[in-house]
């Protein structure tokens, strides 16, 4: 059950449309790296990719949970050479159970003075400064396009919209 949970967590990682029933090759490789299945000696990322290609169907790009267990069995023989197949498989399950995708090596944004200078809207000049309000929030479409005023009044006329009041007020 813990193994299936780990499979599901990695299967949906980074994919908003994933259901958690099938896993892509990229997430399979990530699972193997994050759970220390890849040790650099007995099992490398190449081995992981080869096993994935071997287990999945010809025209499919994903593996199911059953195929996932098969793939682990293949790899466990390589990873734990001295042990029996059953022992090796149990060791492999122990590595993965209860784990989730880690965020190690994920790119973080760097707050460099250059980037902050370029994105500081208060320093914008020309037509670009018209695109943001005083707080630095973008105005959206109003900041990019000249929106036409079809009210019938000249732009800048102080008493715009008062005609109806004047006409009804005199009656």
Automatic annotation (TrEMBL):
GO MF annotations in UniProt: tubulin binding
GO biological process terms on file: microtubule bundle formation; microtubule polymerization; positive regulation of protein polymerization
Record keywords, A-Z: Cytoplasm
Gene3D superfamilies named in the record: EF-hand
GO cellular component term, pick one: cytoplasm
Pfam families linked to this entry: p25-alpha (PF05517)
Domain of life (superkingdom): Eukaryota
Region of interest: Disordered: 119-152
Compositionally biased region (Basic and acidic residues): 127-147
Location (main, coarse): cytoplasm
Matching InterPro entries: EF-hand-dom_pair (IPR011992), TPP/p25 (IPR008907)
Cellular compartments annotated: Cytoplasm
UniProt family annotation: Belongs to the TPPP family.
Protein name: Tubulin polymerization promoting protein
Organism expressing this protein natively: Malurus cyaneus samueli
The organism's taxonomic lineage, starting at the top: Eukaryota, Metazoa, Chordata, Craniata, Vertebrata
């Amino acid at each position: 059950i813990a193994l299936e949970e780990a499979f599901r967590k990695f299967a949906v990682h980074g994919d908003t449309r994933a259901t958690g029933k099938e896993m892509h090759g990229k997430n399979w490789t990530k699972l193997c790296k994050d759970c220390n299945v890849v040790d650099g000696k007995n099992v490398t990322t190449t081995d992981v990719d080869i096993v994935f290609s071997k287990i999945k169907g010809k025209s499919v790009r994903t593996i199911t949970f059953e195929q996932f267990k098969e793939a682990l069995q293949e790899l466990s023989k390589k990873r734990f050479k001295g042990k029996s197949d059953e022992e090796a498989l149990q060791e492999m399950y122990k590595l993965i159970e209860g784990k989730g995708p880690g965020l190690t090596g994920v790119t973080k944004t760097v707050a460099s003075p250059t980037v902050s200078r370029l994105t500081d809207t208060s320093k914008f000049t020309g037509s670009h400064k018209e695109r943001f309000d005083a707080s630095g929030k973008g105005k959206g479409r109003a900041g990019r396009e000249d929106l036409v005023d079809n009210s019938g009044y000249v732009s800048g006329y102080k008493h715009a919209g008062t005609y109806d009041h004047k006409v009804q007020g005199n009656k």
